[in-house]
Amino acid sequence: MELRQLEYFVAVVEERSFTRAAQRERVAQPAVSAQIQRLERLVGQQLLTRSSRDVRLTQAGAALLPHAMAALAAVRAAQEAVDEVADLVRGAVTIGTVTLHPVDIAQLMADFHADYPEVEITLGTDNSDVLLAKLSDGRVDAAIVSIGVDEHPPGLDYAVITDEALVAAVAAGHPLDRRRALSLGELCDHSLISLPVGTGLRSRLDSACAAAGVRPRIAFEATNPMELAELARHGLGVAIVPQSMARAATDLHALTLPPGLRGRLVWAWRRDMTSPAARQLCDRARRSIPPDAAGPG
Question: What is the location of CATH 3.40.190.290 in the chain?
Fold first, then answer.
């Protein structure tokens, strides 16, 4: 039993015509008829009844039809699997990240390159707003970005990397260095050091302040959270940083802010991603994130 015979058989059944089946398969009509006859001789039963107006299944044909369709579907699935491997071998992946994150991107890329050396990987950095826009329009396949705890960007899926509180950090000698906590109103009475507009941390700060009816006084901006801490060390203001960074900086004093002010880093990708190479890389990235990476905050 040949696949071509099954393909022609299904085509005739679906088109209810040898002529239309031949047109669909782009062959001459006698070729379809000949293959159907060979199939009938092979199974030892008439599969179709023919009339001048119509073609119908016999009982034997009705019994064969679902198996013929399943066999053709299996062949298509097998071809798609082979094509996917071929696409993976010669594919391309574009990744974007914010400037500071705990994911070992270099190791991820090195491991992936060792298995798929022909895949071209492009890596770039930008702020979260830009990366989310690039994800949405397909300019990047995956990105490490900051989003709000209750934020769910449309069309994207993500795995949480970190989820932690944002705190205020000051140097010794600052008027706040003996305080343990601040309200947003109290925070906004002081000169602040923050990431620029478009970053996730700044978006969290601006949104929380707007909801509280206050406006932050941004005295200095820096593109990297580590630079924020460095500016605070020099007494230039109150740095808004992730809690883990403040804890690691023994020369800075951290003040707790309202509990709703949190930052979340995620590995995000398009829900309708079609690139096999990008899917494979995303799967690896997700597996590399420890189950407790987000932490309790």
Answer: 91-296
Identify whether the C-beta of residue 277 lies closer than 8 Å to the C-beta of residue 269.
no
CATH code 2.130.10.10 for 1-88: no
DSSP string spanning 87-136? HHHT-EEEEEE-S--S--HHHHHHHHHHH-TT-EEEEEE--HHHHHHHHH
255 CB burial (10 A radius; 0-12, 13-18, 19+)? buried
Every domain range in the chain assigned CATH 1.10.10.10 = 1-88
Each residue's pLDDT tens digit, 141-161: 999 999 888 888 888 999 999
Tens digit of each residue's pLDDT (9 = 90 or more) over 15-70: 888 888 889 888 898 998 999 999 999 989 898 988 777 888 989 989 999 998 99
Short-list 166, 220, 165, CA closest to 190: 220
Token pair in block for residue 280: 């494979």
User: Rounded distance, CA 118 to CA 192, Å?
Assistant: 47
3-state helix, strand, coil in the chain (%, to 5): 45, 25, 30
Instruction: Give SS3 for 148.
Output: coil
pLDDT digits (tens, 9 = 90+) for 117-138: 888 899 999 999 999 999 998 8
Q: Which CATH class is domain 91-296?
A: alpha beta
Contact 6, 71 (CB under 8 A): yes
